[in-house]
Design goal:
elongated; 2 strands; alpha+beta; single chain; two-stranded antiparallel ribbon; 172 residues
Length: 172
C-alpha cells in the first residue's frame, strides 16, 4: 500500500472503494474528455496537464480528484472504447466555389458535407442543398469539377448527368 500512496497516479484503491455511480461518473468524464479530443483532432498529450488543472480548480469534487487520464489511458479509451462505436464510413466532401467579383476572381471552400452514401442521387441532393442554402442560383452554375469517379462524372447516371438535366450546356 505504501507504493500506491507514493505514486498517486496508480490509484487502484479509487476503483475498489468507489460506488458504481461514482465510478460511472468518473468513466463518463474521462470518456467525454477523450471524445472531445478526438472530435476536434487534438493531441492526447496535454490530458495529464488538463486533469491537474481540474484537480486544482475543483478541489471539493471527488470526480475531479479521482480522474486519471494521461495520454496512454486517453489513447486506450479512444482506440478500444470509443472507436468501435464511432466507426462509420463517412466521406467528407468539400464544396468549393470560384466566382467573379468586382475585385477579381475569388475562390474558397463553401462548406464541407458528410456524405454517408456514395450514390449519385445522394451526392447530387447534398450539393444542390448546399448551393441553395447559400443562396447560389443553379442557373448561374457554369461548370462542375470533381475527381474521376463514375458516380461523379460518368456518362449515364452521375452527379454531372443529374446537374446537366437541370442545366443543359454545363461544362465538365
Amino acid at each position: 500500500m505504501k507504493s500506491v500512496e507514493a505514486n498517486p497516479s496508480n490509484r487502484i484503491d479509487v476503483a475498489c472503494n468507489a460506488t458504481t455511480t461514482e465510478l460511472n461518473k468518473l468513466c463518463a468524464v474521462e470518456d467525454a474528455m477523450v471524445l472531445y479530443t478526438v472530435k476536434h483532432s487534438h493531441s492526447h498529450i496535454p490530458h495529464a496537464c488538463t486533469i491537474n488543472i481540474f484537480k486544482k480548480c475543483f478541489p471539493d469534487s471527488s470526480t475531479a480528484k479521482n480522474i486519471t487520464c494521461d495520454k496512454t489511458k486517453a489513447r486506450e479509451i479512444a482506440c478500444n472504447v470509443l472507436a468501435p462505436s464511432l466507426t462509420r464510413n463517412i466521406k467528407m466532401v468539400p464544396i468549393v466555389v470560384q466566382f467573379f467579383s468586382k475585385t477579381g476572381v475569388k475562390h474558397g471552400i463553401l462548406e464541407f458535407i458528410e456524405q454517408m452514401h456514395e450514390s449519385a442521387d445522394d451526392l447530387f441532393a447534398n450539393i444542390e442543398y448546399v448551393l441553395e442554402a447559400n443562396e447560389l442560383k443553379l442557373n448561374q452554375l457554369v461548370s462542375l469539377g470533381s475527381d474521376n469517379n463514375n458516380v461523379n462524372v460518368g456518362n449515364h447516371h452521375s452527379v454531372f448527368a443529374l446537374f446537366e438535366k437541370l442545366l443543359p450546356g454545363l461544362i465538365k
